[in-house]
Design brief:
It is a single chain. The chain has two domains: 1-213, Phosphate transport system protein phou homolog 2, domain 2 (Methane Monooxygenase Hydroxylase, Chain G, domain 1), CATH 1.20.58.220; 215-244. It is flat, with a radius of gyration of 22 Å. With 245 residues, it is mainly alpha-helical. Helix 1 (2-39) packs parallel to helix 4, helix 1 packs antiparallel against helix 5 (118-144) and helix 4 runs antiparallel to helix 7. It has helices spanning 2-39, 42-50, 52-73, 77-110, 118-144, 147-171, 180-212, 216-244. The longest helix has 38 residues, at 2-39. 89% of the residues lie in helices and 0% in strands. Belongs to the PhoU family. It comes from Corynebacterium amycolatum. Plays a role in the regulation of phosphate uptake. Its main location: cytoplasm.
């Protein structure tokens, strides 16, 4: 029985590790896609595209591990949450990889020219830097199951949302000076970065559920209720001290 339990725990650990491996692969692809975009680097773009099949292999391997655990071990409680959350996380990380491929495709299509008009390149460099940071933080969350760090990713995502909205406003302005093709590229690329960040936030939300047993919004409401209760207790204690004086 002890041997079976050890094997089961190793299988659970392998599933968790496979998610980290996927995140590492996507992080590498995303950095190369950014390089391809900002430097009109065809080699980087082609390298990203060449990794599509290997990322799909990682996705299928992780899913297979999860399905086998569900079918053979009948997990309950925390283990069941880990497996089900793992299946959702696999899909989110896979989508992050697909969005990196989309970015690389835009860069390849416009080569040897840059896809971005110079006046908006700075906005995209900021989105790229933040999204790379979010990938790193997502990896750490997958390792540590740190709830506070997972919740912080949602706030980091706000900066990308703000830039995405600003670019939307610029491209719809009557004074937007660039060509229809450039407008399409800016619109699509902004959306790709925005969705990439959203999927990182979703991974973090799954970790919150895995670590606490609560969905992110429910957990945040619970924290707020606890803060309100502590504040009430402090005011009540202060009043009691005042009345005893």
């Amino acid at each position: 029985m002890e041997r079976m339990r050890t094997v089961y725990r190793e299988q659970m650990d392998n599933l968790a590790h496979s998610l980290i491996v996927m995140c590492d692969r996507v992080g590498s692809m995303h950095k190369l896609a950014n390089k391809a975009l900002f430097e009109a680097d065809l080699v980087s773009a082609e390298t990203v595209l060449s990794q599509i099949d290997s990322l799909e292999d990682l996705r299928q391997d992780a899913e297979q591990r999860a399905f086998e655990l569900l079918a053979r071990e009948a997990p309950v409680a925390g283990d069941l949450r880990q497996i089900v959350s793992g299946l959702y996380i696999v899909e989110d990380i896979s989508r992050m990889g697909a969005l990196s491929v989309h970015i690389a495709n835009v860069a390849r299509r416009r080569h040897p020219n840059k896809a971005l008009p110079e006046p908006v390149e700075g906005f995209f460099r900021e989105m790229a830097a933040v999204s790379e940071q979010m990938t790193h933080e997502t990896r750490q969350v997958l390792i540590d199951y740190n709830v506070d760090q997972a919740l912080a990713l949602d706030k980091t995502d706000d900066s990308i949302d703000d830039i995405h909205q600003h670019l939307f406003t610029l491209t719809n302005d009557d004074n937007w000076p660039h060509t229809p093709a450039q407008t399409v590229d800016v619109t699509l690329l902004s959306r790709f970065y925005e969705r990439y960040a959203d999927h990182a936030v979703e991974v973090a939300a799954r970790i919150v559920y895995l670590a606490t047993g609560y969905k992110r919004d429910v957990y945040l409401d619970k924290l707020e209720d606890e803060r309100d209760q502590r504040s009430f207790n402090q005011r009540l204690q202060a009043l009691e001290r005042h009345l005893r004086m």
